[in-house]
Amino acid sequence: MEKEIRNLNETNFSGANLIRASLAGADLQGKNFFMAQLTRANLSGANLSGAELGSADLRGANLRGAKLGDSILYKANLEEANLTGARLCNADLRGANLNGANLSEADFGIADLSAADLQGANLCGAKLMGTRLVASNFAKANLTGCRIHGAFTWNVKLQDARQLL
Question: Which domains does the chain have, with CATH numbers?
């Protein structure tokens, strides 16, 4: 059962318990969700541009079509989250856990995915143009149709990853 959140005027949700919260389509631009519990939350189509989501727990969250440009997701847990078609341009995803996440058609232009764990993630058709991928783990990830032009790569793990054009 989703929790419905009514008052979004508050700017600081740091450490908040928003497990299974319904924030679909909400304007959360620049809001602070540092270390917030957002497990299985519905954030589809939400505007989280410039939001602080560092160390937030977003396991299994629905972020389909969400706007996350310029957001901070440093060490966030996005395991098995749905980020299909999400816009993550210039986002900070250093050290983020994206194991098994659905990142198909997501736009990571100029984002920083250094030391991010993307094991088993679905990146079909994702855009990684100009993205930092230093020490990122793409083991068993599906990179079919993924565009990785101009990416900064160093020590990337690709064991058993699938990449077809």
Answer: 11-165 (2.160.20.80)
User: In angstroms, rounded to a whole number, what is the distance separating the alpha carbons of residues 34 and 134?
Assistant: 24
| Segment 34-84, tens digit of pLDDT | 999 999 999 999 999 999 999 999 999 999 999 999 999 999 999 999 999
Structure tokens at 64: 């389909």
Q: Is the dihedral of CA 55, 66, 28, 6 positive or negative?
A: negative
Model pLDDT for residues 76-112, shown as the tens digit of each residue = 999 999 999 999 999 999 999 999 999 999 999 999 9
Residue 43: which residues within 8 A CB-CB, separation 6 or more? 23, 24, 26, 28, 61, 62, 63, 66
DSSP characters over 105-155? T-B-TT-B-TT-B-TT-B-TT-B-TT-EEET-B-TT-B-TT-B-TT-EEES
